[in-house]
Specification:
The complex is a heterodimer of chains A (436) and B (456).
Chain A (H helix, E strand, L loop, with lengths): L6 E4 L5 E6 L5 E8 L13 H8 L12 H6 L3 E6 L4 E8 L3 H13 L7 H20 L6 H9 L14 H6 L2 H11 L5 E7 L3 H12 L22 E7 L5 E8 L7 H12 L5 H9 L3 E9 L5 E9 L5 H18 L3 H17 L10 H12 L5 H10 L2 H11 L6 E7 L11 E2 L4
Parallel strand pairs in A: 2-6, 7-11, 7-12
Antiparallel strand pairs in A: 1-2, 3-5, 3-6, 4-5, 8-10, 8-11, 9-10
Chain B lengths: L22 E4 L5 E6 L5 E8 L13 H8 L9 H10 L3 E6 L4 E8 L3 H13 L5 H18 L3 H13 L13 H6 L2 H11 L6 E6 L3 H13 L25 E5 L5 E9 L8 H11 L6 H9 L3 E8 L7 E9 L3 H14 L8 H13 L8 H13 L6 H10 L3 H11 L6 E6 L1 H9 L7 E3 L4
Parallel strand pairs in B: 2-6, 7-11, 7-12
Antiparallel strand pairs in B: 1-2, 3-5, 3-6, 4-5, 8-10, 8-11, 9-10
Helix pairs in contact in B: 1-7, 3-8, 9-12, 9-15, 10-11, 12-14
Classes of the chains: A alpha+beta (436), B alpha+beta (456).
């Protein structure tokens, strides 16, 4: 049976603590989730959750120096990340450095505020602006997803902007806002701590209580609400970029994380766009050779998901040709569903995927990260088995139904990214997209 | 009991680390089979290693080894290209083919219950690829498109041009992906000939790491590969046998990318091989200079100055003398400052600011203490074994690693810095906006700026 066994406890200050024993390798993963992401930001102050993630590495009251130094010296790997829904931080440490990691994680959970100075704030804002230039502005197709979500979600919807935020908003943000953000979201009541690895569960729990139990609870964080977004008709957009080959992005609203139809659409994405046996690869890349690459994904999130297909044109093929071929494949799937061989492969791949998730205790996607994900999103750290069951329960008929229900040709965003001066390669009638 | 926050908690004694035992045998064909037990999850990793990579591309044919690697799964034995991939999916397997400078590796991680069928498929891929003319044309076209797209990616442009600057006329002077010109010239016969010459059983090692007893794993491997026909080894280009090139005449070069929001930088030189007696000292040196977040260059350029999202350096250890490279992407208006700071740091570690005792401790500790987590999963264990096979290291190498790093002294680091980071042959490359950077670059004191165009 595939599962991640665990024990859990909620401390008096509201911090959830989860422990998973895995004694194979003399390491322990420390993983903390704060239930805050870019969806908690305000219009005009986007990019804040991610900027704040950077500040978490700049020192807290009792260790007011770089967070990396003592941990790297102890042999740790560490990182953090922010997305629309949550922010996570992790260390993977040799067993003899577990106390050190807990000391530091608890210090920045409980005692960051007085150590948060204007100098640190300005320096990390510069680093983030550089990150934005490097990974978005200076990267081919780097602004496409920004344009896409801006079209999928209305201006006041929390998914209207990307985690990196707008450069103008970042420049306009202040230290006082960072301090207020900290007080509101970074405390035990809004966090979940998982320890996984070569440590006895009782001892791990005791250590968690000792280091984190003294931290003040913080205010309740009300859930973010947003009206379900809808597209009244197709939105057709064009982005001119420094690229050689045009690329088509298609996106639809889809069931949110763990909702009915979410797993089905994940499987539909695999079937359409994952690997050389997928339908879109076969049709567009292998047989017709009108695309150089194609991918599909169900981007599952707390408030609302979107299903996406991305196809890059082979030289000489306008995006309209790709769109017609993609639409044909979607229509075929909606009309007659997957065949037996496809379902057999999908089921084998899903099982392998879940088994692979059991290989490592730490890091992004490791067992500690998964326990926290299930806990933060569902309040059920042990959801692994039921998650797998969703995929096992999917049938050819349920995939066909999901494709028919959600991939409507007239309720999608179609974004054409084309080389500058080659608007003729975009879909007909595409309006220039604005990104900031 | 309240927490003492007046000082960081002390570390306990380091946990001991032992690399698992490797069982070795050689099949009648000469292919080596290594097995390691790793029973955590019902997965097994197969890694097939051929110590022939892009450096063995015949003269004038850059990209051939990678093209051959790419074609292995496009039809093999009785299976068409699509049937190969349908089989992989049904087995719950994932195939990665990697062609680097020194080696070609195929890695398959599979549900353990499907081990026999995965081995049988892997044997077909490496021994009986079809190389159909139609698939060849299709894959060549796909790779040409990929090359076109790489022109848009500043890091890819920088990597390519930098190797050309450092290694003119040397087998290490090109990327595995090759060039458009050479890709267009290839014929399917070139592919077949390269496979025949290079893919010899006597060169290859199959590593099986996973959920089974070593004898069973080895027997399964033998069953799948015993009947597999591979030719005898014929000569291929051996980069390790070719002396490194003379230091290049160019000290600073620029590839124009009009309007670029950032400059992509590479600073480095030809250094040394994986067999260097200074290997461990160089690992420590690199940690100090730019090999980790708390390295000198990253702390200076990212944390103090905010010029960049991050800087990293590395010695790319190969069978022959590989490069040392410092790389980063910086905002355009600080291009000159970032280069000057980097050159100053590289110079300082040799001269006026040699490694300090505290830095030495941190660097050694990061290498040693972080070691166990590199061996947690079956794919990690298999890749580690591949290092042993490729560089012909002793079985106890990983167990010996910790004491060897511990033995590195400050003098060793300084001596290594003198030998491998001297200004001789140090080259700086900028991929960025010429109009906004050229005048500044001329003033850095590295001589005239060689202006290069985007390579075809």
């Amino acid at each position: 049976m595939l599962s991640i066994p665990f024990v859990s406890e909620t401390l008096e200050n509201g911090l959830d603590v989860i422990v998973h024993e895995d004694r194979r390798c003399p390491i322990v993963a420390v993983n903390v989730w704060y239930h805050v992401g870019s969806k908690n930001e305000q219009v005009g102050r986007t990019g804040f959750a991610h900027l704040f993630e950077h500040l978490m590495f700049e020192g807290s009251v009792h260790h007011d120096r770089g967070y990396f130094h003592p941990l790297q010296e102890a042999g740790a790997a560490l990182n953090g990340s922010t997305n629309a829904d949550r922010t996570n931080y992790w260390e993977v440490v040799p067993v003899n450095a577990l106390d050190l990691a807990l000391w530091l994680e608890s210090d920045r959970m409980g005692y960051l505020l007085p150590a948060l100075t204007g100098a640190k704030f300005r320096n990390q804002r510069d680093v983030v602006l550089n990150e934005r230039r490097q990974n978005y502005e200076n990267r081919p197709y780097g602004l496409a997803t920004m344009a896409l979500v801006a079209a999928l979600y209305p201006a006041d919807h929390p998914y209207h902007w990307l985690t990196i935020g707008s450069a103008d908003d970042l420049r306009a943000s202040s230290l006082e806002e960072a301090q207020a953000f900290l007080a509101r979201y970074y405390h035990p009541r809004n966090a979940s701590l998982t320890l996984a690895g070569d440590v006895e569960a009782g001892r791990a729990m005791e250590l968690a209580r000792r280091y984190f139990g003294e931290i003040a609870p913080g205010p309740e964080v009300p859930p973010v609400m947003a009206a379900a977004p809808a597209l009244a008709r197709e939105a057709r957009l064009r982005l001119d970029d420094q690229v050689e080959l045009p690329r088509l992005y298609l996106a639809w609203h889809s069931p949110k994380l763990f909702a009915e139809g979410d797993a089905e659409l994940d499987l539909v994405a695999d079937l359409l766009g994952n690997g050389k046996t997928s339908r879109l690869y076969r049709a567009l890349v292998y047989e017709r050779r009108i695309a150089t690459e194609v991918a599909a994904s169900q981007n599952s999130r707390e408030l609302s998901s979107f299903f996406q297909i991305v196809a890059t044109a082979a030289p000489g093929h306008p995006l309209a040709e790709l769109d017609a071929a993609v639409s044909e494949e979607i229509a075929r799937l909606q009309a007659s569903g997957p065949d037996e061989g496809e379902m057999e492969r999908a089921s084998a791949q899903a099982e392998a995927h879940f088994v692979q998730r059991l290989q490592t205790v730490g890091g992004f996607g490791g067992k500690s990260d998964q326990l926290n994900a299930y806990n933060v999103f569902l309040g059920a750290p042990g959801h692994f088995e039921r998650d797998l069951a969703r995929y096992r329960a999917a049938t050819a008929a349920s995939l066909e139904r999901a494709a028919a229900a959600y991939l409507a040709p007239d309720a999608r965003v179609a974004l054409s990214v084309v080389p500058r001066g080659r608007a003729d390669l975009a879909l007909a009638g595409a309006e220039p997209a604005t990104v900031s | 009991m309240s927490v003492d926050r007046s000082a960081l908690p002390a570390l306990g004694p380091d946990p001991t680390f032992r690399f698992p035992a490797i069982a070795k045998r050689t099949l009648a064909s000469g292919m080596r089979v290594w097995t390691v037990e790793q029973r955590a999850v019902p997965l097994t990793t197969l890694l097939w290693l051929l110590p022939v990579g892009a450096a063995a591309d015949p003269a004038g044919q850059p990209g051939l080894a990678a093209l051959v690697g790419d074609l292995l799964d496009e039809g093999a034995g009785d299976r068409s290209a699509l049937e190969v991939h349908e089989t992989l999916s049904r087995l719950g397997a994932r195939l990665d083919t990697d062609v680097g400078a020194d080696a070609t590796t195929l890695t398959l991680t599979v549900l353990s219950r499907n081990l026999d069928r995965a081995l049988e498929l892997l044997a077909e891929l490496v021994c009986r690829p079809r190389f159909d003319a139609e698939e060849f044309e299709r894959v060549r076209e796909r790779r040409l498109h990929r090359l076109v797209q790489l022109r848009d990616l500043p890091p890819a442009v920088a990597d390519r041009v930098f190797l050309e600057l450092l290694y003119p006329g040397h087998p290490y002077g090109h990327l595995a992906v090759g060039t458009e010109a050479s890709l267009r010239r290839f014929t399917v016969d070139d592919v077949r000939a390269f496979h025949r010459r290079a893919y010899a059983a006597s060169r290859a090692t199959l590593i099986v790491a996973g959920d089974g007893e070593q004898d069973q794993l080895a027997a399964a491997a033998a069953r799948a590969f015993d009947g597999a026909a591979l030719g005898a080894a014929a000569d291929v280009v051996d980069a390790a046998a070719i002396p490194p090139p003379d230091p290049p005449g160019t000290r600073i070069a620029l590839v124009d990318r009009p309007g670029a929001a950032q400059s992509e930088l590479r600073i480095g030189r030809v250094a040394t091989s994986r067999h260097s007696p200074d290997y461990h000292a160089l690992l420590v040196l690199n940690m100090v200079v730019g090999g980790q977040f708390v390295s000198r260059v990253n702390l200076n350029l990212r944390e103090e100055k905010g010029y960049t999202y991050g800087v990293r350096s590395s010695f790319d250890f190969r069978r022959g003398p590989g490069p040392f490279v410092l790389q980063m992407s910086v905002q355009t208006d600080v291009t000159r400052a970032a280069i000057e700071e980097s050159l100053r740091e590289i110079d300082a570690v040799r001269a006026d600011r040699p490694v300090e005792p505290r830095e030495l401790d941190i660097a050694r500790a990061a290498l040693i203490r972080g070691y166990p987590r590199s061996f947690e999963t079956a794919p990690q264990i298999a890749r580690a074994c591949a290092q042993l096979a490729l560089y012909e290291l002793a079985d106890d190498y990983f167990t010996q690693f910790v004491p060897r790093v511990q033995a590195v002294a400050a003098e060793d680091v300084t001596r290594a810095a003198h030998r491998y980071l001297s200004g001789d042959g140090l080259v700086t490359l900028v991929v960025g906006d010429r109009e906004r950077t050229l005048a500044d670059l001329e003033r850095i004191g590295q001589g005239p700026v060689t202006q290069l165009s985007l390579p075809a």
